[in-house]
Amino acid sequence: MAVQRTFSIIKPDATERNLTGAVNAVIEQAGLRIIGQRRIQMTEDQAKRFYAVHAERPFYGELVEFMTSGPVVVQVLEGENAVAKYREVMGATNPAEAADGTIRKLYAKSIGENSVHGSDSEENAAIEIAQFFSEADIAG
Ligand code: DAT
Ligand code: MG
Predict the structure, then answer these.
(1) Helix (H, G, I), strand (E, B) or coil at 138
(2) Do residues 48 and 64 lie in contact, with contact meaning Cβ atoms separated by under 8 Å?
(3) Quick one: how far is CA 103 from the chain centroid?
């Protein structure tokens, strides 16, 4: 295993309920370091580009609308095996299927409003981090 970086978003359903600190506590308790963090209002163009891989899916429009419905917190996380570790800490996409103690089990409202995003590969993590961060805004 190696130290990796992954990209995280605390989504609008979580910022709306003032859960940024609660989500960050789960992240930090899992041994991941938050080495970059910024609160932004995503534009429609940013959300469309970020989720372009899902453009043909029936929920794409709803997803873009949700991700632009309120502020999000974009983050760079670092740690041993961070990509897989964060996917584990997040829990399944559908909170009804998420394991106990995971962020989605604890906080997600539905499969669409599921509180957090995490990269699914190291390659995508690098692409997603670069969409929102410059190296000057990351300190490991
Ligand atoms: P994940 O966020 O676990 O990587 P994904 O990449 O398959 O899941 O989908 C991206 C987001 O799209 C997901 O977090 C919420 C939304 N989504 C996925 N499947 C959905 C569905 N069946 N109905 C509504 N929204 C969905
Ligand atoms: Mg995904």
Answers:
(1) coil
(2) yes
(3) 11
Kindly report, residue by residue over 92-131, the tens digit of the pLDDT: 999 999 999 999 999 999 999 999 999 999 999 999 999 9
HSE-up of residue 79 (Cα within 13 Å, Cβ side):
18
* Region 3-137: CATH code: 3.30.70.141
Whether 99 and 105 have beta carbons less than 8 Å apart is answered as yes
94 known member of a binding site:
no
Residue 117 annotated among the catalytic residues of the structure: yes
Instruction: Check: CB of residue 112 under 8 Å from CB of residue 63.
Output: yes
The rounded Å distance from CA 37 to ligand 1 centre is 23
Residues lining ligand 1, Cβ inside 6 A: 54, 59, 63, 93, 111-112, 114, 117, 120
Give me the residue spans of the domains in the chain.
Answer: 3-137
